[in-house]
Amino acid sequence: MSQPGREEVIEPWQDSAAYRPPVPRDGPAIATARPPRKRARWITAGIALTLAAAAGAAYVVTGPHSFASLGAQQEAYRHHWPTPHRGGTERLAPAVTAAPDNGYTATRTEGGVPVGYDPCDAIHYVIREENAPAGGDKMIEDAVAKTARATGLVFIYDGTTEEPPSADREKYQPGRYGDRWAPVLISWTTPDEMPSFIGDAAGFGGSSPVQSGQAPWVYVTGQVQMDGPAAGKLIDQGSSAEVEAILLHEMGHVVGLGHAEDKNNLMYRSTDGTVADFGPGDLAGLAKLGNGPCVPEY
C-alpha cells in the first residue's frame, strides 16, 4: 500500500487514467462498437507514452500526458500570467477531517508536501455542453459537490463555454475569461475530437501547477474530458452510476489525487464497477489536499 503524498507523475497537465466501463450484464461491452483496440503512442515533449489495456482492467492507465517541459513552460510563459490578485489568507470553507488512511497517492509532491489548490481561493469551473448525454450537467454538479465536501475546497460554476478541450490548453486566456487563470474546463467530447479516447477510454482529468519565487506550488486550473457518446450509451443501458463514477474519479485527479493501491478506493487504477464513491484512502487524501497553504501571491 502506498504512503501518503507519494508522487505519481510530475507533469504540468496530468491525467492519469481513462475509464473503461464494465461489460453490461445484458449486453456486449461498448468496445465492440468500435474498432479493435491498438497500442497507441504519443510523442510529447520528447517522451513516448504507450496506452495498453490491462486484461480485465476497467481503468486504462495511460501514464502522464507530458505536453511541455515544466521548467521550459514556466520560464516561457511566466510573463503570460494573470495580474496577481493577492488572494486571501483565510480559508473560504472549514477544513475537512478524515480518518487516517495510507491508501492514497498525490499526483505531485514538492518537498514531501502534496500539491493542491489554494483553499483560500475559489476554484472556478465551466462546462462545454456539446456532446453531453442526457442528465450530464446534473452528474457534473453532483461530482463537483462531492469533491467539494471531501476537500473543503470551494467551487464556483461560471456557466457554459464553447472552449474545446485541448491537450495543450493555455492556463491563462484573457480574451475568453478575463484577467485571471482560466477556470477548470469540464467537457464532453468524442474520440474524433480527442484521439486520446481510443478503445474503451472514456475519461481523463488533471490540473496544471505553477510556482513563483519562494511561494508554494499550487494548481491554478485543470480539465476533465469525458467521452460523451460512451457516457450516453452507458446511460441508455441503465448504468448512469458508472458515468457518475467516471466523473468522480476524474475530479479526484483534478484536485490532485493519483491512483490508489487499495481496491476499496474509487481512485484504484482498475475496477469492476462495484466502487461508486470515494473510499477511505480517497477521503484521507482529499482532506489532505484540501488543507494546503493559502497562496496569495497568485
TrEMBL record:
Molecular function as annotated in GO: metalloendopeptidase activity; zinc ion binding
List, alphabetically, the InterPro entries matched.
MetalloPept_cat_dom_sf, Pept_M10_metallopeptidase
Q: What are the start and end residues of every segment in region (Disordered)?
A: 1-36
GO CC terms, sorted: extracellular matrix
Q: Which protein, by its recorded name, is this?
A: Peptidase M10 metallopeptidase domain-containing protein
User: What lineage, starting at the top, does this entry show?
Assistant: Bacteria, Bacillati, Actinomycetota, Actinomycetes, Micrococcales
- Every Peptidase M10 metallopeptidase domain range: 238-271
- Does the keyword Coiled coil feature in the UniProt annotation? no
**Bilayer-spanning residue ranges:** 42-61
- Give yes or no: UniProt keyword Hydrolase: yes
Q: Which GO terms describe its biological process?
A: proteolysis
UniProt keywords (A-Z) are:
Hydrolase, Membrane, Metal-binding, Plasmid, Protease, Transmembrane, Transmembrane helix, Zinc
